[in-house]
Amino acid sequence: MTQHRLPAAFIRGGTSKAVVLKRADLPGNEAEWPTLFAAILGSPDPNMRQLNGMGGGISSLSKICVIGPSTRPDADIDYTFAQVGVVNDAVDFSSNCGNMSSAMGPFAYDEGLVDGPLNGQAIVRIHNTNSGKIIAARFRVASGRALVAGDLTIPGVHGTGAPVVLDFLDPTDTFGRGLLPSGQQIDCFTLQDGREVNVTMIDAAVPSVFVAASDVDGDTCAHPSELDNDIALMTRLEEIRRQASVVIGLTADADSAARRIATPKVAMVGTTAHYEDLSGQSHAPQAQDLQIRMISAGQAHRAVPVTGALALACAAVVKGSVVATVLAPDADPLNLRIGTPSGIITVGATRDAEGGGISAARILRTQRRLMDGHVYAPLQSTLKSRRSDFKKEKIPCSTTK
Length: 401
Description:
Blueprint: E1 3-13, E2 16-22, H1 33-41, E3 63-69, E4 77-84, E5 91-92, H2 98-110, E6 120-128, E7 133-142, E8 145-146, E9 164-169, E10 187-190, E11 196-204, E12 206-212, H3 224-229, H4 231-247, H5 254-259, E13 265-270, E14 275-276, E15 282-283, E16 290-296, E17 299-300, H6 306-316, H7 322-326, E18 336-340, E19 343-351, E20 358-365, E21 367-378, E22 399-400
Parallel strand pairs: 2-3, 4-6, 12-13, 16-18
Antiparallel strand pairs: 1-2, 1-21, 3-4, 4-5, 6-7, 6-22, 7-8, 7-9, 9-20, 10-11, 11-12, 13-16, 14-15, 16-17, 18-19, 19-20
């Protein structure tokens, strides 16, 4: 053999696509995974097209998901996410992908990896190993298959699909320093050009840092390609991201932060304004509560990562945060309307009435399996050891009829 040959599925989850693999088919030594994953997607590629692999040339299309048996009694499956660089071969396991989370429950159900009702509603509790958090996925099933057809539209995806309700339970404190890792709603960073900017660093769904667009000479109505081509702006945002990484303890220094491409996320936020999304549709200011432009793995995201949107919703309920200061006066934190490059999405965060923390964050997505079979990668790592325990048992999942 001249290539690895692995069973795989290619699935759209929300506004992302990923190669989905079963843990049983991967090397038992996880140190071999990064090289294999980069080869599967065609990274590194200085042409930013990943033509020699399954990647699509942008961060939202350069992803790997791994499904395995749950290692926790309160979950039905384990789900590990890998963000793979496009220009480089960096493989980052430091955060979850919320969009692809929507496909994990239906995938596990369709593969027979969990038990569930023949018809009705299935609930799969997903343990995301990157964040250590539980995600409850609810979706309709018929004749033993997860439904795909439905009437839900999500910005950035043409057509409609069956809804998958994602509840990110206890979404804060994914790496042990609480909702506000620095202990403050606002921190002030000094950039290399001498300007001082206020930021809010938050750890909810994914560690993130938010800055007002006006403080970095940015525009939350801008097309993602405009942002990518604004080298000065992207440099400022990356500098903020790296400083935040060090301050909140994700990395020891700026060089280490540069190599950790997936976290923290960095985003500009701004007040509502008229803009056109990528499809050309116009959105009035009164149809939004705020606007966002988020950077993901060094590129302006074409929509907004689900985890980033959830972090934004959680930051919105923190009094005095950068996000709270740009909100429309009548914004509803349970139904926050976010203006993104692909249109307006709605997310919400629920506060714990007793403790005052954030108990859950919710978003609706759609998903669809596009292809399955085998994926090939050049022989760059050995596959001597494979685990077979995953295929031996089904894992019961919670269901409602």
